[in-house]
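Onboarding guide, step 5: your first structure request.
Type a short instruction followed by the sequence, for example:

Predict the 3D structure of this protein.
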Amino acid sequence: MGKPILVLTCPNKKFNNYLKKTNSKIEHLIIILSENHSFDSVYGNYCKAPSFSNPKCNFGPECCEAIPPYLSGVSPVILTDVQNSRWDPCHQSNCETSEINGGKMDKYIINGAGASPNNFAAASGDIFSAQHYHNWAKQYAIADRFFQSSSGASCQNDMYFAVGKFVFKDNDVRPQRAALNGNKCDPDANFLSYFDPSIGDVLNACGVSWTWYSEGYAENPNSGQCYPKFYDASDNPFAYYPSLTEGVNGNYNFRDYKNLLEDLESKSLPAVSYVKFLGMHSEHPGYEGSFLTGQLLSNEVISKIQSSDLYKNNTLVILVPDESGGFYDHVTPPNASNVDGTLYGPRTQFVTVGEMVKKNYISHVQMEPASIIRFIEWNFVWKEGALDTRDKVVNNIGDMIDAEIAGEVPSLNPLFNNKMEINDFRGNYKENKNISLGNKEQFKFLE
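The system replies with structure tokens like these:
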């Protein structure tokens, strides 16, 4: 007999009963998840500071490090749309760990598992390469210390966006059962369900609307319709959780990408949205993977937000891949996480787009996928660290947000002490101690 479906109480219900607004003026968050590129492979030719120079400035490409001009005697391959479709580096845990080589980052071309000169690549920034990514960097904010949560393949790292911790290795597990939508191509796979709380459970418990929008989800593909041309359930980390797929909000939490466009048109966008395009549209190398198509689809979402009078000034868009895909990056990852003991992987691109982000900005704050969870908790639930995983120890993404426009940005510490009761909070507010408030209208009930 299986485990019962998780029923979670909002971890900050006392505050949530009163605080109906978001912590900042950001009322909507859209996270677009692409696949398999390192920071150097996208921004190595955008950044102008010498590699390993550790620039301290924050504005413009002179404030982030370029890819090294040579590695093992060869220069970087130009990552074009054609090159992206031709070469898919090995990005299993053994390959990435071997190539990282204890932080030396020197086995991507020779002597490493999966080593190849094609792993040493950087986009040029033209229309058939990474023009949109380079333009977003000029107009908005990017981070040059955003690291892949663990050394391993896509599904392994996808889980960190949902629960902020290691769940399984590489792509070794598929969600729940063979009959699940998007699961029918591999009936003999290792199917597992998980029952610990995810950020999706926290949002549902606190009455915060959210949806994972997948391109092709509504087609409910059959056994002959497989990745990369059809929806694959293993690309959705929340699909592993029966509390969500079988919960009362299941039909709302899991929907097709076309529903996102409809929700924007009907002005019914959820507070939190995740967007995942088909494998061949996700920028994934190989598999007919178009680097350009993924950028065009992401730009479609951004353009619709920017043209909306309702959403333009209150929506933050995040662009981030699930992992580095086996592409070279020159910056040594952090040591293993104290939370789950898992080795970090290389840097990936991390882009924030919106009216409330800093412009032409390079953040040097160390972050990772759990930093997004922590921001969701801070902004929509008012309690950071609600999952008690990496979300309780990582830096938030607040360095990339303009406090003068957003009204309030998250600090590196929780806004509230997790054990604080409402009466303590009221006393601190009256004495103007321990709390930084953006919009004091929200706190009139304390006076």
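Each response can be followed by summary notes, for example: The chain has one domain: 13-416.
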